[in-house]
Specification:
single chain, alpha/beta, Spore Coat Polysaccharide Biosynthesis Protein SpsA, Chain A, two-stranded parallel ribbon, 9 helices, about 35% helix, about 15% strand
Length: about 300
Amino acid sequence: MRHDTGPMHHRFHLIIATNRPPEYLDRAIRSIQAEPYRVFLSVVAQRPVPEVPDRLAAMIRDGDGEYIHQPGASGVSTARNAGMRTLRADLVGFPDDDCWYPTGVLSAIDARFSRVDEEPRLGGLCIPTKDATGRGTMLRWLGRSRRIRVRDVPRTVICSGVFFRREVLDDIGDFDDTLGSGVEPFGSGEENDLVMRAVEAGVRVDFDADLYVHHGDFRDDGPTTAVLAKVRRYNRGFGRVLRKHGCWGQASYWVSRSVVALVIARVRRDAAAVEQQHAQLAGRWQGWFGRDDAGHRHPVTPRTR
């Protein structure tokens, strides 16, 4: 349940979920403070001991931030839902603790939401991620802007680039807390699910290929044990979301892509690619059938409102 705060004094409410030390958030918070807007920042920390970042402490003193401590809790969806209990702005975003905004991006996002000559009214906006060099990261992004359909979600949605109007979130509800980083066995997909629910409800959600948020790519470390485990978790969450929304055609397409990519990697004798594609395929398959690495079954839960 949301708590009403009355008049909005901020244009953006940004919610960061983290389980990392406070200094890890410094770059993200600096980029937020550099924007010419009064932004309200919620940091939800799932750490044993509360540690408020210095920059956030200053924002809290000015009435522009809060620190929510969730000791013993886990999962970005649980954390973000806590941050959404009281929304303090008309536009809401969910930056990761390791991303940062390029100068002017919030102004450009505000301009997109402020257009009065568009029908239907824009309810959500998704933008891609790029590393510090300008290279696209995390997804195989669509190359052009468009209104998002359900089938576009796998190539247009990463949580750090998702923005919604407050009223849309009031209508479609919270993140599914059985999905997302920190949740086993479905370690991603919470943002895909949220955007799919909005699109299915008739909300206009656009993808803007010309804007972006900076974010690295964990796969750059190569096929280490940790990276391959994350690939499997992320794709397990992806498969889970496709099953939850009954996307049979999409599931067939993405599993087929993984099979073809795995065959090509084997033909090329690219051992690193074989490992990554195998982890990706296994994760998608497990997610669709609701299985974890031990073979335990996890029934699909009803859709979150």
